[in-house]
Amino acid sequence: MPLYDETNEEIHDEIHEALHRIAHVDYTKPIIRNASVPVLYEEALAHEKGTALTSQGALALNSGDKKGRSPRDKRVVDEPSSTENIWWGPVNIKMSEASFLVNHERAIDYLNTRSRLYVFDGFAGWDPKYRIKVRIVCARAYHALFMRNMLIRPTDDELASFGEPDFTIFNAGQFPANRYTTGMTSTTSVSINFERREMVILGTQYAGEMKKGIFTVMHYLMPRAGVLSLHSSANEGPGGDVSLFFGLSGTGKTTLSADPHRFLIGDDEHCWSDDGIFNVEGGCYAKCIGLSAEKEPEIFGAIRFGSVVENVVYDSSSRGIDYDDASLTENTRCAYPIEFIPNAKIPCVGGHPKNIILLTCDAFGVLPPVSRLTPAQVSYHFISGYTAKIAGTEEGVTEPQATFSACFGAPFLVWHPTKYATMLAEKMEQHQASAWLINTGWNGGAYGTGKRISLRYSRAIIDAIHSGELATAEYDTYPVFGLQIPRAVSGVPPEVLNPAKAWLGSADSFDATLRKLAGLFNDNFKAYADKASDEVLAAGPSLA
Fold it and tell me: Which ranges of 225-374 would DSSP assign to H, the alpha helix?
């Protein structure tokens, strides 16, 4: 039975009045607000082709032609209230107010043609002092269910008193942008207007655009309020000690922060205020490719009734998911409420971090498995955001390639990277946090010669950080990068700790590779040198 009868009777509830006022949505259209999971399942199965119920109880959906984010199509409106604060360039491409209004009108016109709309009102940020009210307006139950999982779900009382949202997303992703609109380069457009407090999506149905769009908004609003926004995971020990984990894809951020002996605060987006850490989200968005109950039992178990799985391949009869099938995309995903993780900490807040852990997967094989960082080195490596692509993973990649993403999340930054790095340094100094650079990549040689550092060793290193063992260890200075490396770590062979000793080739080949990587770091950092302090500049590799 449908949630609304298909009649022409006018509906004058709060959400109809609000959307009629701002978007001229007619009063006869069903607008389904903050629907329950069963209702959204029914809506998607009834109205969205290709939707299926999987054997685990999750709802399987297809995001259309776009199976990932479209960073080249992201635009930010250049307007007086924010223009001086924004890091303009390839990450934040300028858009005129006029072009935004064209896209806005195009999105509203499309939404008005739909027979039904969905609205989800929720919060971003677990700390009530800093959370923002977010409204999602969309034409797919898929998108409403996705954001129901990813935002913080309001109680009945909070929903009743929700009022006007602080930010609204109009998702008309099934309808293309006009390529001839000034500033458009394709039929996809993801545009943010901070003055109007709105985001408009055209030409992509990939739900991750909404998740990262709200994170981008928080990356702008929180620093204005003196709160540091971070692309990181966070967990908490039995004694209340909090650790933050930073790392790009493939570095082990999700795996190493999912510790059965510690509580998960969140897996991706956090803020650090004067009161401590809080998660931005109410859910998790995990990769599914290669997923198994043996390798990642928590995530595997979270894929059940209420979860969304995107672009996975499943058996047409049994509806069992083949997590190893990448024929649609390597970027298969699942979105689920954070309480589906057994050791999640609810509310998702914690004290001030005791340890800051920067993860990298160095495929050149020359960075130590663990290094203790000085405050200036933290800023340097945080701004650098280094990892490496592995030969053979992409067409044309025949040797390791360095990849740098400022603050371990450049696509979502709004302010200049040094703004976030300066705030991080100040927070760390104020709360006496320790910092570590951990390489989960290669040891004994580059990819193809050396071996990937054992996950067992990486976990032993994390345990040594949390136990306090590394706080009292003896250290040696590592050449060129100037890093402090421990002489011993429980559970890790001594020869693994120093890449020079583990290197299987000649001393000359090691030195050449080390200096090559150092040169790549230095070349990358030139883009930030004009706003970095002398201390931070001096904390980089030295080729003198």
Answer: 253-257, 297-302
What is the SS3 assignment for 73-123?
HEEEECCCCCCCCCCECCCEEEECHHHHHHHHHHHHHHHHHCCCEEEEEEE
> For the segment 249-276, what is each residue's pLDDT rounded down to a tens digit?
889 898 898 888 999 999 999 999 999 9
Q: Which residues are catalytic?
A: 69, 212, 231, 249, 253-254, 268, 333
Sign of CA dihedral 267, 240, 454, 247: positive
CB 139, CB 112: distance < 8 Å: no
Report, as an integer, the average pLDDT of 288-292. Answer: 92
Structure tokens given for 275? 């009161």
pLDDT digits (tens, 9 = 90+) for 330-340: 999 999 999 99
Please say if the pLDDT value at position 86 is more than 80.
yes
Do 251 and 171 contact (CB within 8 A), yes or no?
Answer: no
How far apart, in whole angstroms, are the C-alpha atoms of residue 263 and residue 258? 8
Angle between helices 141-150 and 37-47 (to 10 degrees): 150
Token look-up 């009649």 returns: 7
| Helix then strand then coil, % of the chain, to nearest 5 | 30, 25, 45
Cα–Cα distance, 412 to 205 (Å, whole number): 19
C-alpha 112/C-alpha 173 separation (Å) is 14
Question: Are 167 and 135 contacting, i.e. CB atoms less than 8 angstroms apart?
Answer: yes
3, 43 in Cβ contact below 8 A?
yes
Cα–Cα distance measured from residue 309 to residue 332, given in angstroms and rounded to the nearest whole number: 8
Q: How far is CA 182 from CA 78, 89, 90, 502, 522, in A?
A: 13, 17, 17, 55, 37
The answer to whether 82 and 173 are in contact (CB under 8 A) is: no
C-alpha span between 209 and 275 (Å, rounded): 30
User: What does the pLDDT look like over 350-368, one tens digit per residue?
Assistant: 999 999 999 999 999 999 9
Cα separation of 99 and 541, whole Å? Answer: 44
**Alpha helix ranges (H) inside 372-416:** 375-384
Nearest to 146 by CA among 231, 54, 212, 229: 212
Residue 409's φ and ψ, nearest 5 degrees, are 180, 45
